[in-house]
Predict the structure.
Amino acid sequence: MRTPHRPGPPRPPGATARRVRGVRRVLGTLAVAGLLLTGCTSPPAFGRDPGTLVIGAEGEIPVLDPHRLSGTVGLRVVDALFDPLIREDLTTESDRAPRLRPALATSWQMSPDALTYTLALRTGVDFADGTPFDAGAVKLNFDRITDEKSPVYDATAAGNMKFLTRWIDRVEVRGTHTVALRLTKPYTGLPRVLTDRRMSLISPATLRAHDPDDIGLHPVGTGPYRQKSADHGKRVVLRHNTAYWGGVPKTEAIIVESVSDPTTLAIAAQTGEVDAILSAGAQQVRQLAGQGTMTVQYPDPANQYFLRLNTRTAPTDDAGFRRALNHAVDRAAIATLTAGQTAPSQGPLPRGNEAYRASAAEDRYPYDPALAKRLIAESGVRTPVTIRLLAPDSGPGFSQATEIMSLIQQDLKAVGVRLEVRYMEFASLVAEEGAGYKKGVHGSFNGWTTGADAGDFLERMFGGDLHPPNGVNRGWYADPAVDALLDKARTEPREETRTALYGEAAERIAADAPWVFLYQDRLPRLLSRKVEGVVAAPSPYIDYTTIRRR
């Protein structure tokens, strides 16, 4: 049974009519967009035969190199072409992180000291180019991201994968289909991290034949689909892998089409040109779910949406000022804007994370402009003050980004903070912030939907030694006390104790406020009534072997 989403914190007695009017203005804009949909007579035509399934991607499709990727749009396509060693079970709905199941590894065993994992590999599997999958292929993939002396080493991929490889001392081949991962420190949570689609296995022939920058132009994995063609950034055409070890997929061909404008994507779904939107916005749900052509599905995966702040540049280098920003934002107004698609979040651990437990931290930052003003004054920051943020103008989970940022601008203006926003296409935003925020950039509006169910999510986001290029802690946050708690949690075999340690780390992080914690998105999917075989498991991914169009 799912845990119901709790309403946001109660508003203080002084909540103003301005908030209601602001939300109504934005909802009025969405209503106009709805009229545009119903009145459209020239829907976009993407071109496909009736038996082909079309998935609408909410942003540009990046180059498909799993080890270099960051972002749901690309990783969802990677999930069709490649396999990781371990997968999640996507056959069951749950309010917890999905259980693990074998993929390219049929079993895994942890040593008593949690320093070695021995994996038995699946036999009789070939990559799409015919190269056999074996222990040597696994080692070569790890060499690419760990061994600077390897001829296939890629520094860019190595930096992106540091969240995993920082714990791996070496990979040992112990037979044709057995490998051992030897760790630098005990790590009881490694199996779940191995489900990350960035740790998908690439054909050794591809790794050896192409320059690092070109690997993603030739995506060859063991997955349920093979790439037939690609117009990079715009479209990828997939054909099912009839030799797939997990069974022949039920759909012969899939087109993944980039449609970054949410209204255009909704029109395409309404007219039957698109069969699935895997990260639908509230506007699209409101318009399409009740019209008889599309159904809405709420997988409710662990995720977080936030303003990540630059802790190295003034004034966001001051923890008191950052706490003030958290009290200045009316999260309940965002939930109203998104028609209940979002649940307010006031701390770093999302619901659905294996370490999540309901706690007082959820009420840490109630909407309180008066308190926000007092904290700003106590921080010594003089108002009015300007902060500059990057934000996507569209993309997965960001169909209402501009409206949300407009509400936040109003909130911050009320406490003396001018918010300047530079909007960018989502893939461009990820590239811009990938090296960490530069001086003068105070952060960005972003979200995280992959790997957020793992206990070590906190370490990926806030670990002091996971600053770029060694990780995705792009706001440069660091706290030795947090790092020490994360070290203890990582090595703790007892679940109750491990969860308590992660909870203590989360409390410290929440108090430091390196993010303005905003909300958790239910990440609804819109599926044509002709589509079947998709279960609302708590994951941003679907099972490509079972999805089909009748």
